[in-house]
Amino acid sequence: MNWIYRILFLLSFASTLLFQSCGINSNLMFKQAKGEENNDSIPLRPAEAYRISPDDKITFTLSTNNGSDIIEGVTGISDDSKRQTKATTEYLVRRNGEVELPVLGIVHVTGLTVEECEDTLIHLFSSEYQKPYVQVKITNQRVIVFPGNGSDATVVQLKNSNTTLMEALALAGGITDRGKANTVKLMRKVNGTRQVYVIDLSTIEGLKYVDMIVQANDYIYVEPTPEIAKEIAQDVVPIVSLLSSAIVIFTAINFLK
Fold first, then answer.
1. What pLDDT is attached to residue 208?
2. Partners of 145 in beta bridges
3. How many other C-beta atoms lie within 10 A of the C-beta of residue 177?
4. pLDDT score of 66
5. Maximum Cα–Cα distance for the chain, whole Å?
6. Would you say 226 and 155 are in contact if contact means Cβ atoms under 8 Å apart?
7. What was the pLDDT predicted at 58?
8. Cα dihedral value 250, 254, 256, 257, nearest 10
9. 181 near 205, Cβ under 8 Å?
10. Orientation angle between helical segments 228-256 and 2-21, nearest 10 degrees
11. If you write DSSP's letter for every residue of 210-226 in order, what string do you get?
């Protein structure tokens, strides 16, 4: 009989391990303790313009004579003495904050806004061209949207600088059936620290936030409804199976005595 008790002990030990290892809704991210949410002073526009970061990709358009050739090109007037380059090539900002551009060579751009970068390039191109006019665009700006399924996410490219929260959610397919519209978390890096703003879109009062301007590298996380019953069932099934096997073995041994 000792070996029977050993089998039962091992089965009980395995069941204990399963109970300790099971994690209900362990795929849920960005959990916050109650009271830690930042619901005050939710910014409808970023506090400051986006600053170029390492691994960004930029393009630029260069024209001379303060960009007059751009206007003349639209009207059909041309002048061979004027020159314009089109933004057809992407330039990668290196990890050290520098980018290599034609004519200019190495230029440090990390930490600059688009406007500041344009002013910098205008100043540098002034030694080569007459009254340069420069337009800079960051081509890989994006936000990451978790629409409410837990760990599923979509990378949304920002094609313009005025993309709203509602547009970003729509581009990600909208809030899923499991998503909680009253708990939409927008996570934005401010002064090197991620700030979390909790937005309620479940009521008419939430309309004031739908036009909130998102910024590159924001995270938008729609909190999912926990699937407690489903996950408990998934965790309990192996334990029930072990216990059933133990009962069958014990019953069979007693029957054969």
1. 86
2. 154, 220
3. 8
4. 73
5. 108
6. no
7. 93
8. 140
9. no
10. 180
11. HTPBP-TT-EEEEEEPP
Q: Which residues, 6 or more positions from 162, have their beta carbon under 8 angstroms from its beta carbon?
A: 213
Q: What is the pLDDT of residue 75?
A: 41
Q: pTM for the whole thing? A: 0.65
> What parts of the chain have a pLDDT lower than 50?
21, 74-77, 233
The two three-digit tokens of residue 162, written as one number: 């005025």
Tokens 């979509």: give the residue.
154
Beta bridge partners of 196: 187
Strands (E), 158-232: 179-190, 193-199, 219-224
In whole angstroms, give the CA distance from residue 57 to residue 168. 21
With vertex at residue 136, the alpha carbon angle to CA 130 and CA 141, rounded to the nearest 5 degrees, is 175
Q: Find tokens 């009521």 and name the residue.
A: 203
| CA-closest candidate to residue 198, choices 188, 48, 25, 189 | 188
Q: What 3-state DSSP class applies to 157?
A: strand
Which DSSP symbol is given to 93? P
